[in-house]
Amino acid sequence: MVPRYAILAGGESRSFPPGDPFLAAGVEPENAEVLVLLGGAPYRPDPAKAAILIELGTECLGVHTGEAAGEEGSNVLGFARWRNGDDPPSKLVELVRQPRTHETALAAARAVLEAAGLTVAVCADQAGRIVDRLLRPKLNAALRFLDEGLASAKDMDLTCRLGLGYPEGPIERVERGGLAHHYDVTRALFEVYGTAAYAPARRAVVAAQRRDRTRR
Amino acid sequence: MNDQTAIRTVGVCGAGGTMGSGIAIVAARAGFRTICFDTRPEALERAFQDTVAFFNKSVERGKMSREARDAALGAMSRTGELGALAECDLVIEAVFEDLAVKQALFRELDAICSPLAILASNTSTLSITEIAAASKRPERVVGMHFCLPAQLMKLIEISPGLLTSEETFRKVWAWAETAGQIPVKTQDKPGFILNALLVPFNNDAIRLVEAKVAEPADIDLAIKSALGYKMGPLELIDLVGLDTQLRLCEAFYPITLDPRAAAPPLLRRMVAAGLLGRKSGQGFYRYEGRAMFGSA
Ligand SMILES: NC(=O)c1ccc[n+]([C@@H]2O[C@H](COP(=O)([O-])OP(=O)(O)OC[C@H]3O[C@@H](n4cnc5c(N)ncnc54)[C@H](O)[C@@H]3O)[C@@H](O)[C@H]2O)c1
User: Fold this and answer.
1) Pairwise CA distance, residues B213 & B231, whole Å
2) What domains can be seen in chain A, in order of their start residue?
3) Whole-number Å distance between alpha carbons of A54 and A96
4) Any bridge partners for residue B145, and if so which?
5) Chain A contacts of B193, Cβ < 8 Å?
6) Exposure of A122 by Cβ count < 10 A (0-12 exposed, 13-18 middle, 19+ buried)?
7) Contact: A130, B215; criterion CB under 8 Å
């Protein structure tokens, strides 16, 4: 049986934007086995629930739960639906666990998300989780190649579509999601890992600086 | 075309191999006289049988007429003598991936072929400029990197070396288009475009497994679902072979010193343990026959 869930909404959610059917199917918190905290809704421990899911941005789950030298873990999980900038969210939910996360909480969380038609990939509480951790350095490399004249943007994208069967190439993907968005994601990764691979590429820095200039 | 320097006859070196046999199909299918050369006659013979079977399948599938098949097969010849390549306007080599072997071949071709002939290399990891340095015509040497399987994949990465002339580049570009391929232009740098993006990406996926961020099946699922790739990186590494991934790292990292291109320690350990992917029955997944375990 799929556990009933309640939505606790803070600000707007990147995983479940207004109108998403997942929002409408929630029940009252007192009738729910699972709590889903969206858009920065404040987290309070509730061991009576089967699972508490906290929507994450670029931060780790530990920011909300605290950490305990590798022994952290409870009925709380983090999650985020992967999304390229302002594109509609993908079907993928990265479900974030800690070392001592209760297996029953993981199963309940998975059941709720899969019942909503989403694809669940479980990962550790690391910056960038799976997709951004793998994708962002590649997009950075493609942006650097563009600056260094390795090939044109068009030829890089064509190579990835024809040679690797990707639905879109790195430059078109990063531009569609927004270079400033790429900057925000990579800056958060770089803060944690500190290696050149995650440092925002020049074109992303430029886009972010232009964004901030127009905001002022 | 009645241009004196037009490409009419194409030589393929290493035509008994995986890539060479596919490249020969591309050339012959497009109507070029195609001379297939390999040092191993039995490999050349096997490749020819495979080519006949491939063309027959194309006819069966309605992708090719009988006449076109017969014309393509009629355009192909096989030889164990390098001298037979003397009349070629374009020679594409797909011999072993070894600088000394390729340089020796180019030195010989230099002596045999017309001074106007263009020599192209299908190398994946070596520098076009370094290969060209062995010939006396570096302005007529160019990189033409086909994708596996060449007879089906349209992409060719075309790379001028430092001394490649504009004319040479234009001619092979036009040849590629005439042959129904889709060329892209890239600098002569390790991995060109495709492998320069792919090899470090695959390494990053291996490092995620090693760092216990997620199980291989979760990593592949996430990448396919979020990005719409047909295969996840770990499935792909299992398919091409972990030993191949390691060889690519060993070729690129010493030149680029890009830490993402360095072989992850887990990759080395798995190769040492004989966990090479599909071909050995186990890599990041276990295989029995063609079925895949652990990927659900
Ligand atoms: N396999 C791939 O996925 C792939 C993709 C793109 C490019 N490449 C490149 O293509 C080339 C060939 O790779 P492959 O996988 O087809 O190898 P392969 O081992 O299947 O074929 C090589 C062939 O070259 C022949 N050969 C070796 N030395 C020769 C010589 N001096 N003269 C004539 N023939 C000779 C061999 O007998 C063999 O038949 C390499 O440079 C490789 O990097 C491979």
Assistant:
1) 19
2) 5-124 (no CATH), 131-211 (1.10.1040.50)
3) 9
4) B157
5) 145, 150-151, 155-156, 159-160, 163
6) buried
7) no
Could you tell me the residue ranges of all domains in chain B? 3-185, 195-290
Q: Cβ contacts of residue B140 below 8 Å, gap of 6+?
A: B116, B117, B118, B119, B164, B165, B168
Query: Helix (H, G, I), strand (E, B), or coil: what is residue A58?
Result: coil
| CA gap B147, B2 in Å, rounded | 31
CATH number among 2.60.40.10, 3.30.70.360, 1.10.260.40, 3.40.50.720, domain B3-185: 3.40.50.720
CATH (residue range B195-290) = 1.10.1040.10
Q: Are B266 and B258 in contact (CB under 8 A)?
A: no
pTM: 0.95
Distances in whole angstroms, Cα of residue B211 to Cα of each of A113, B25, B144, B216 = 26, 44, 37, 12
Cα angle for residues B251, B254, B259 (degrees, 5° grid): 105
* Angle at alpha carbon of residue B180, lines to B179 and B186, rounded to 5°: 90
ipTM exceeding cut-off 0.85 for this assembly: yes
Tokens at B102, concatenated: 């390729």
Interface-testing mutation among A155, A160, A173, with chain B (most B C-beta atoms within 10 A): A155
Give yes or no for a contact between B203 and B262, defined as CB atoms under 8 angstroms apart. Answer: yes
% of chain B residues with pLDDT over 70: 96
- For A79-144, give the secondary structure using H, E and C: EEECCCCCCCCCCEEEEEECCCCCHHHHHHHHHHHHHCCCEEEEEECCCCCCHHHHHHHHHHHHHH
Collapse the DSSP code of B5 into the 3-class scheme (helix H, G, I; strand E, B; otherwise coil) and give the result. coil
Q: Which residues of B touch A125 (CB under 8 A)?
A: none
pLDDT value at position B289? 66
The rounded distance, in Å, linking the Cα atoms of A128 and A188 is: 8
Specify the residue with its C-alpha closest to ligand 1, atom 9. Answer: B123
Q: Is the pLDDT of residue A100 over 80?
A: yes
pLDDT of residue B293: 47
**Whether the Cβ atoms of residue B294 and residue B216 lie closer than 8 Å to each other:** yes
